Amino acid sequence: MALKSFEIKRENEKLLRVAVDVVDGALRSLELSGDFFIHPEEGVETLQARLIGLPPDEKVLAPVIKRCLAENAIELVGLSAATIAAAIARAR
Fold first, then answer.
1. 3-class SS at 26?
2. In sequence order, which residues have a C-beta less than 8 Å from that of residue 36 and are 6 or more positions away?
3. 22-75 pLDDT per residue, tens
4. C-alpha–C-alpha distance, residues 76 and 37, integer Å
5. Contact predicate 88/56, CB 8 Å
6. Looking at the whole model, is its pTM more than 0.90?
7. Distance CA 7, CA 87 (A)
């Protein structure tokens, strides 16, 4: 597995690190880390699992991330769904 990584820190947001493995145009693995907060903490695993198999495209990922957060009552503090989607797209 060849993970590619990217770090992003947008104004008024916390640092986000992503590591991705993309195979045949789809996310095969994804790791999100950084100094942001997510409640409940296991929400990061839920979010990562939901994105596996999707293309690393901001326009595809952003609405899926928002939906996953809402459906699972996951709260991001210091980070937006758009930033996560952008970082994944850039890491690939």
1. strand
2. 13, 14, 15, 16, 76, 77, 78, 79
3. 999 999 999 999 999 999 999 999 999 999 999 999 999 999 999 999 999 999
4. 6
5. yes
6. yes
7. 7
